[in-house]
Structure formats: C-alpha cells, structure tokens
Prior knowledge:
This protein has helices at 3-9, 24-31, 57-64, 71-80, 152-162, 177-182, 194-203, 285-292, 296-304, 336-347, 366-376, 379-382, and strands spanning 13-14, 37-40, 48-51, 86-87, 94-97, 115-116, 120-125, 128-133, 136-140, 143-146, 167-173, 210-212, 223-224, 229-240, 245-246, 252-253, 261-272, 276-279, 310-315, 324-329, 353-358, 383-390, 404-412. By secondary structure, the protein is of the alpha+beta class. Strands 5, 6, 7, 8, 9, 10, 11, 14 and 17 form a 9-stranded antiparallel β-sheet that branches. The protein has a 5-stranded mixed β-sheet with strand order 19-20-21-23-22. Helix 4 crosses helix 7 (194-203) and helix 9 crosses helix 10 (336-347).
Amino acid sequence: MQFRDLLFGNELRKLNEPVDPYLEASRTCMEDLGRAWSSPAKGHDGFFLAGNVLATRRSIASSLGCDVESIGDTLLRGMEDPQPYEMVERPPGYSVVKVDSLPLPTFFKSDGGAYVTSGIFHAGHGGKFNLSFHRMMYMGNDKFAVRVVQRHLYALLREAEASGEKLYATVSIGAVPAALLAGSVTLPFGQDEMEVASSLNIKAGEGPLPTFSPIDDEEGPRAPVGTEIVLYGSFNGERTEEGPFVDITSTMDRSGMQPGEPVFKVDGVLVREGAIMHVLLPGGYEHYMMMGIPKEPSIAQSVRKVVPGVKAVRLTEGGCCWFHGIVSITQQKEGDPKNAIMAAFTGHPSMKRVIVVDDDIDIFDDRQVEWALATRFQAHKDIVMVQGARGSTLDPSSDPCSGTTSKMGMDACMPLDDRKKFLRVS
Length: 426
C-alpha cells in the first residue's frame, strides 16, 4: 500500500479549492482532527496537500491489514522479525525539482519557519543504518535545520563527524505506511528500521518493501518506492538555531535553538507526478498516532520480560500519546503490577505516568480505567514514585536545567488473594 492509497481508504474530505500551505493547511487539519483531507496546494501548480491521513487507530490498522486490537502485536512482530528490503532501480515517473518549489507548510505564526514534519530520514554510516522521524525547518538555499535528539541518528552523526565525513541521508515525505510506522519504532543501534517496514509489508501480504537510491548508490540510504517526495543530501557538521516550534504537547518547544541543531543540505529533490505533501499537524491526532503507537510494542516487550501475561498497552490521547500510558496484565503473583510499572518506564523513558490494570479492564475505554482506579486503587500503597529520572525534552514541566522529571506508576489491580469483591457484576 502506498501513501496515496491511504487517502482512498479513508473517509476523505476532498477539497476542490486550493489550500494555502501557509497557515491554512494547519487550520484545515484542525477543523476535523480525525478525518483525512486532500486539496491542491495553493500557489504550487501540480502539487497537492493531505492531512490527518493516519489520525485514527482504525486507519493505522487498515494500513497494516489487521484489526485495531492487534496493532501493537503486529508492530511487535515486525520489530522481532525484521526482513531484508528489496533494492530496485529508481522507478520511472519521478521528476527533479527545486526545494523552493515544494509546498512547505507553515503551521503557526509563531513557528521559526516553514516545516516538514512528516519526513523520515534514512541515514547510514559504517554499514549501520537508521530510519527515523525528524522535524525540519527550512532555512532557504536548499538547507534545513533538523531537530536531532540524542538517539540513533545523533549517534550516526557523531560517528561521521569523528571520522571527518559527511552523513548522507534521504528524506521520504508521503512514504508508504509501513515505513511511516517503522520510522518511529526503536531497534538496537545499528539495526535498520527499514527492515521492520519490509517485515510489516510482508505481513500485510505485499511482499518485501521495494526501495531505491535517488542517486543509484547501492550502499547508500534509500527511499521506499511510491514515496511522494524524496530529498537527498547530507549533514556536513554545520549547525544553526532550529525553532521555535509547536510540538506534540501543543506548547512551544525552543529546545532546538541553543546550542543549535544540525543542518541538512539538500542535493536534489525527486517528486512523483501530482506529488502530495503530507501535512502532519504538530499536536494533532495524527501526530499522536504516528509518534506514540509505535512505542507501545516497546513497552509491551519490556513489561513481558517481568510479567509474561501482558494483554494490551495504550499510550493515551490525553497524555499526547507520549507521556501517559495504560498496561493491562494477567497477574500471576503478588508484586506483578509494581514490576510492570517499572518495566513500562524502561520500555518508554519519555513516559511519566502509567496505570496498570487487570486483564478484565478494556484499556481503550477511559471509563473502565477510571472505574479500576476508583475501586481497586489506594494512593497510600498503590503509587510508585520515581524522582530525578530522564524524561522527555518535549515536557515543559521537566527540570529546566537537568531535563529530569518525576514519574508516577499507579497499581489499579485486584489483590490476588481476595478477587471476588473487586469483580464487576455482569
């Protein structure tokens, strides 16, 4: 399934009037956060805009060929069974354009500039590759300031800089859904998340993921076939201020401004005919889904190491699908919920609150979760507090100097030795 196929599979608002990428595209997203839309791009002949494309769990499940309840397990199987991707020649139908011709969105007047928020970087150095999302602020002159937190792309940049080399990368905008989802999962450093995308593609019945090099370099970074817009270029050690920018919390993030972020110099741009700019609204539902859902398998994987019976994991919309989580488990012995809490924080270090419930609670129903807290939780003995832990740079309430945060786990499970009085009568 390619990106434009997603639009036909959703309840699409097809707008006949052109939408301006400057501010109007973000307002169009906010009119109905859970519904996909597309339109011609105002002022950019031949280009289209599309937003809220994967803004619901249902749309993600459809793209993976599974049901909503199986999203986490499907992603986890892809992570645990990565498969080689297919390497093909650059397909016909792509043309070369200038960066300045692209309909780059400006989401809010307070933003530092026009931004690409939906681009996934595929970068490699020393035989190690990484696929990951990074926001990109356009500086003009074919250059972007890229927000790179201290994860795997950061490590590749450090390695390249230490050897005095550029780090080459492709940026795929409007990529196939398997690659979009794989771009947010976490594998051990050096393992290529593009292989997770290939595994997801296989499990959806579409075979190994076909990829190509924009410059016909068999050993370099690649883009999935069918990607709407492909940028290719390199990081060469230059840094600059990035932001300010509204991020997943819907608050202003200035963390890229000092000491600055790496600069990506674009050497070329390939676009499909009728190319679609994927407008991923910061702090919108699609942002929540794309950033948060791929972290749920990591939480499940971590919790299963200490409590084998994990039924489901959910990062909640109220917590921006990033800071707050719920885990349902099948208890086997006393203390399992407390162990599950600590393991959940290990599986997703940005999370700052997790509620652990029994497997009779539907964690996708907020009322059931609150009912479990109301009837099975006592604060004086069921809270696990962690102070001074590493959290997320996106959390405006974290310590401004150290970046650390406090975390809270809530055990809303029944006691094993006295379950009868805690069961809901049906």
